[in-house]
Design brief:
Layout lengths: L1 E8 L2 E7 L7 H14 L11 E10 L6 E8 L9 E10 L9 E10 L7 H22 L3 H12 E7 L8 E2 L8 E2 L11 E3 L7 H11 L7 E2 L1 E2 L2 E2 L4 E5 H26 L8 E5 L21 E4 L2 E4 L16
Antiparallel strand pairs: 1-2, 2-3, 3-4, 4-5, 5-6, 7-14, 7-15, 8-10, 9-10, 11-14, 12-13, 16-17
Organism: Symbiodinium natans
Protein name: Lon2 protein
Amino acid sequence: MRRVLQIRAPGDCIVSSVADDETPCREEERRIGAQVMVFAGSGARSPRSPRFRQRVIHWRDFPEQNMLTIAELPMDEQTRSSKSTSVAVLELLRGSQPAETQLMRVTMGLFVQQVGSWAGASLRSLCDAKRKLFQSTLGSIGGEALVTLQKADRDLYCVLSLRTCPGGWPLLPGNIGDTRDVKLPPCKAPEAFRFWHRWTGEFSFASYLQGFLEGLGVSDTQVFSTMNGKPLAFFQAAVIRSHWRLLADWFDHAWQCQTLAYQQDSDFSLRHTPKICDHKTARFAVVEDPEASIEDEKSPVSVRRTFIHVDDDPLCPAQHARSKSK
């Protein structure tokens, strides 16, 4: 049984786990695990207690589609760090016929710091014990284990997208005391939603939404800019779905006041004011490789639609006549 202690990002959390001593292979895992911890320099200690903390990371559709990668990093309570990591990759194998039972391939890996190659036999035994334990856990979930896990992961978070900003980025609540302030009359908004100001600096919807909530006194709702370990596009943000549902009515009212202030400040119609929608698909930012080589010089050959265009080099006279497509 697990209880979430802290959510670091979608698919990345710290959990408190309670081991089931009656589970097959649990005693073997505990015994070999304690031996490996000694190999790793943690000192001779008693086996891990039934209750322990660990960091659990889920990567959906990684490294390929229809895969789920789960990494577990047990926390060393003395050093507040992890000395080992177990990784399970679940792959759904679809049969050739729709009626065939779906099978799942499970690949297990174990990574331990500061352990010599002479400890390989114990590490292999530990990995095998973890594999058997993992298989028994999946068996309790049922044949559709991967589908169940992926659906639970999708249902936990929702991805929000910002759309339609022809008059600039949406406004933030609060009075900053300068000419950028927008003040709504009392007849249009309650006192808490009357003052608004423009966003300044580089825009990120996740940062904006966090600032919007904090500006109205809601500081316990987390807004994330990543999903599955990858940065979201600047116009998207992820939130915990249950938290968002609790805020829905209050947020809708606050957003309506923001829309009125936006119209007053930019003189745009309601149709052209910023809107927030629950987007089912996450879009990720393009991250440039810092080690990528300098872009090569532009090639004289470029492909446009279905034609190949060859640019003339003024330093090299043409050797034969040719025509270019229009």
